[in-house]
Q: What sequence folds into this?
């Protein structure tokens, strides 16, 4: 009986269409249309340059923090409290690094989706994060890093705030709880994939 069902499925499947003859104009236009995907290279290159720029700026900011801490402790320059300044500047540099990673992921993803696979990445042990097979996959990876960058930026802003009432501190505590829950659910949905 199972073989009869299998034979029925084979008989009812549609026959492939015979190849259609295309005109020369249609062939030329389709070839041109396909090559326009190379315009994505502009976005790939621009995103890479922006990523490099943010890595450099974040590194310079980190160097400035190290120089300030050195001046504070070794040079005995206690004109300002270095602790809050160092933490907020390092968090700011971390935010720049995360945005640079977003731009790099975006660049790699666009290249792999529209131009070609990156062969050295396929043979690499760390290529898992760079394997992107669809625009949805690229969007998800970029969104996750953007969410982390926003959370880091939020904490940088919280460090710079002055709290005067218990209600303000309660609001901050609730917002941190909301961020923790959001990260929990983000991680939970990522595990289901």
A:
């Amino acid at each position: 009986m199972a073989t009869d069902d299998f034979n029925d499925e084979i008989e009812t499947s549609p026959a492939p269409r015979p190849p259609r003859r295309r005109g020369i104009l249609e062939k030329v236009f389709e070839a041109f249309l396909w090559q326009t995907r190379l315009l994505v290279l502009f976005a790939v290159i621009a995103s890479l340059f922006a990523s490099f720029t943010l890595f450099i700026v974040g590194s310079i900011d980190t160097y400035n923090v190290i120089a300030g801490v050195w001046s504070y402790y070794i040079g005995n320059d206690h004109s300002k409290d270095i602790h809050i300044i160092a933490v907020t500047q390092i968090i700011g540099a971390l935010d720049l690094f995360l945005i640079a990673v977003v731009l790099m992921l975006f660049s790699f993803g666009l290249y792999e989706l529209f131009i070609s696979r990156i062969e050295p990445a396929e043979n690499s042990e760390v290529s898992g994060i760079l394997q992107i097979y669809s625009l949805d996959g690229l969007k998800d990876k970029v969104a996750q890093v953007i969410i982390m960058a926003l959370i880091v930026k939020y904490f940088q802003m919280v460090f710079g705030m002055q709290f005067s009432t218990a209600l303000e501190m309660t609001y901050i505590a609730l917002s941190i709880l909301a961020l923790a829950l959001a990260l929990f659910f983000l991680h939970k949905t990522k595990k289901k994939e």
Remarks:
- Residues 5-10 have pLDDT under 50 and may be disordered.
- Helices lie at 2-12, 24-35, 40-73, 82-114, 119-122, 135-159, 166-192.
